């Protein structure tokens, strides 16, 4: 139960509702049991009529009618209270489930990129959905049934002991056995349903992947093999489901068997006590059979609830594991900082934790506000890493990274990121309209601002070409943009909020040179007063920059303007010659 203590704050938050639920449950159980003594009383009067102790039939009728009305009344009240009980306990559990999901989601958002690299997306999703759902079963049904079981058992036992104490003792003997057997059965059911769930998620992942990759499957003619793999998985899933059903099938027979045993005990021992005169009236037997039946479900619930609590404990442990992860990148202060935009790397080195790859070694350069720096280098030379460090997606290991002369980890993180327009290498667009994808960079952007940003990114004409224009939905349910169109929407998103620092990571690689030229011209105007870093493999993107640095294996090997570099032996000159040749061919 140690892990479940995390939820105590939520119980505290909803304490009044839970307390009301408790009172309602006790009242519901008391009203719910009242029909039993009334049935007992009715049996007695019928017996007295048969024995001739009551001769007037209208007395019998009146008494029976009175009892029936009371039974209907108390049962209706109990039913209504049971409805209210569910409304409080289950509703509170849904509220806590919602709060917990939000807590986990917010925490996920605070965690750094390293956390996402160490953990698989499926695992993150499972903990926020499956595990939270299991915890909800503890918060709702488990607590509700525990309260019901406790109150029912106490109320029923009080009624039983009042009627016949010794018979009560004999009758309750099989009940702990029932609770224990149901517990064992619930554990077995849980184990098998976990396997069923695992198969189901394998099957889901496989199906999803094969539909996403349908183009590859078809072009390689892999349909028969995919079919075989699917059949194998679904056969496994069917077998595991059958295993589960076999165990589940024991549940009700076991309950019926144990109720039957208790009933036999009531009739046998109660019957003997009536014969020996220890119990006076037959109504005790009738009432006891009803009491035993009333006790059975709550007692069985003890076993079921125990297994629910165990599952919730395991799930909460997994949730707590992530909740206890500390974000590596934190905001150093709450006051906002004005960002002017100058960036300086002083002997910066950086090694990725997970791969141990040293992506940058002693890198130094400075870009002032209004300047453009181009970063050129072979793949894997560390270009993107420079941009990620400026966005503080990672913290540097050695050296100093200064923003406006201040160490980056002393600058307000929100201010820093709000002032950066970052276009990543793999433009990621959400399954939403083009308008909203662009507005993502500035949520309150006007239509005019959206169009201007799209025009500057040279994508406005393309968007107009779609029948729904800016309302065109992208992604799974919408159209798929070409690589170049995606890159340009992504540029529009970065420039719309007019940030002080613009970081372009090889984001014109998928557009033709003509469009590249057009975008660069537009950007030239926009970035006049900004600090701009352009990472590229193309000389055409770099040639107009104020300064160009060449990276090789994490080291700055050359630095200078386009004119200087094309006359200096090295990677830039070779690349220039090669790309010039390609253009001429
Ligand atoms: N998230 C990461 N985790 C671990 N290692 C990484 C990560 N990103 C990059 N690396 C490694 O760091 C090195 C530098 O990568 P980086 O992405 O900065 O290169 P790049 O010059 O931008 O390459 P490209 O031109 O192909 O985009 C590479 O060896 C790469 O494998």
Overview of this structure, please?
By secondary structure, the chain is α/β, with parallel strands linked by helices. It has three domains: 321 residues, Up-down Bundle (ABC transporter transmembrane region fold), CATH 1.20.1560; 169 residues, Rossmann fold (3-Layer(aba) Sandwich); 74 residues, 3-Layer(aba) Sandwich (Rossmann fold). It contains 22 helices and ten strands. The chain has a six-stranded mixed beta sheet, with helices on both faces. A four-stranded antiparallel beta sheet has the order 2-1-4-5, covered by helices on one side. A hairpin with a 2-residue loop joins strand 4 and strand 5. Helix 2 packs parallel to helix 6, helix 3 runs antiparallel to helix 4 and helix 7 runs antiparallel to helix 11. The model has no long low-confidence stretch (mean pLDDT 87). Bound molecules: adenosine-5'-triphosphate. Adenosine-5'-triphosphate binds next to helix 13.
Outline of the structure:
The chain is α/β, with parallel strands linked by helices and 585 residues long. 64% of the residues lie in helices and 10% in strands.
Overall form: elongated
What is the CATH topology classification name of the largest domain? ABC transporter transmembrane region fold
Q: Tally the structural domains.
A: 3
- What's the total number of strands? 10
The major beta sheet can be summarized as:
6 strands, mixed
**What small molecules does the structure contain?**
adenosine-5'-triphosphate
């Amino acid at each position: 139960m140690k892990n479940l203590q995390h939820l105590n704050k939520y119980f505290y938050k909803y304490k009044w509702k839970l307390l009301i639920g408790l009172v309602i449950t006790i009242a519901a159980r008391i009203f719910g049991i009242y029909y039993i003594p009334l049935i007992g009383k009715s049996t007695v009067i019928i017996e007295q009529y048969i024995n001739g102790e009551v001769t007037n039939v209208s007395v019998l009728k009146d008494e029976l009618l009175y009892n029936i009305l009371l039974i209907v009344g108390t049962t209706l009240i109990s039913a209504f209270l049971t409805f209210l009980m569910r409304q409080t306990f289950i509703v509170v559990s849904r509220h806590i489930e919602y709060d917990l999901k939000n807590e986990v989601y917010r925490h996920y958002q605070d965690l750094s990129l390293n956390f996402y690299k160490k953990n698989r997306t499926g695992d993150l999703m499972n903990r926020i959905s499956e595990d939270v759902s299991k915890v909800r079963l503890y918060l709702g049904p488990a607590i509700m049934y525990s309260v019901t079981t406790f109150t029912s058992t106490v109320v029923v036992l009080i009624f039983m002991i009042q009627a016949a104490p010794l018979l009560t003792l004999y009758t309750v003997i099989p009940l702990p056995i029932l609770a224990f057997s149901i517990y064992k059965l619930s554990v077995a059911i849980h184990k098998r349903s976990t396997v069923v769930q695992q198969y189901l998620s394998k099957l889901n992942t496989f199906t999803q992947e094969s539909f996403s990759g349908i183009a590859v499957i078809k072009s390689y003619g892999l349909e028969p093999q995919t079919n075989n793999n699917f059949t194998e998985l679904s056969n496994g899933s069917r077998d595991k489901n059958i295993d589960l059903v076999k165990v589940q099938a024991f549940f009700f027979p076991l309950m019926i068997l144990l109720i039957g045993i208790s009933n036999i005990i009531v009739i046998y021992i109660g019957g003997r006590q009536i014969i020996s005169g220890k119990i006076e009236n037959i109504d005790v037997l009738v009432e006891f059979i009803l009491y035993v039946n009333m006790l059975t479900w709550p007692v069985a619930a003890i076993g079921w609830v125990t297994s629910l609590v165990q599952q919730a404990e395991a799930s909460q442990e997994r949730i707590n594991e992530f909740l206890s992860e500390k974000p590596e990148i934190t905001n150093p202060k709450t006051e906002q900082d004005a960002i002017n935009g100058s960036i300086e790397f002083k002997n910066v080195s950086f090694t990725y934790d997970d791969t141990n790859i040293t992506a940058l070694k002693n890198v130094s350069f400075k870009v002032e506000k209004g300047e453009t720096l181009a970063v050129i280098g072979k793949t894997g030379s560390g270009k993107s890493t420079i941009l990620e460090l400026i966005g503080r997606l990672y913290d540097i290991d050695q050296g100093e990274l200064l923003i406006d002369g201040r160490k980056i980890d002393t600058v307000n993180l929100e201010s820093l990121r709000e002032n950066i327009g970052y276009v990543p290498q793999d433009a990621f667009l959400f399954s939403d309209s083009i308008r909203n994808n662009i507005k993502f960079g500035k949520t309150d952007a006007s239509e005019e601002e959206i169009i201007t940003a799209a025009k500057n990114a040279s994508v406005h004409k393309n968007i107009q070409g779609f029948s729904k224009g800016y309302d065109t939905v992208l992604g799974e349910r919408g159209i798929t943009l070409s690589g170049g169109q995606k890159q340009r929407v992504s540029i529009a998103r970065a420039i719309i909020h007019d940030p002080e620092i613009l970081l372009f990571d090889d984001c014109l690689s998928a557009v033709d040179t003509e469009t590249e030229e057009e975008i660069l011209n537009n950007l030239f105007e926009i970035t006049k007063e900004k600090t701009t870093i352009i990472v590229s493999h193309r000389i055409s993107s770099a040639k107009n920059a104020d300064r160009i640095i060449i990276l090789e294996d994490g080291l700055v090997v050359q630095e200078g303007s386009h004119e200087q570099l094309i006359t200096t032996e090295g990677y830039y000159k070779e690349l220039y010659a090669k790309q010039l040749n390609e253009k001429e061919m």
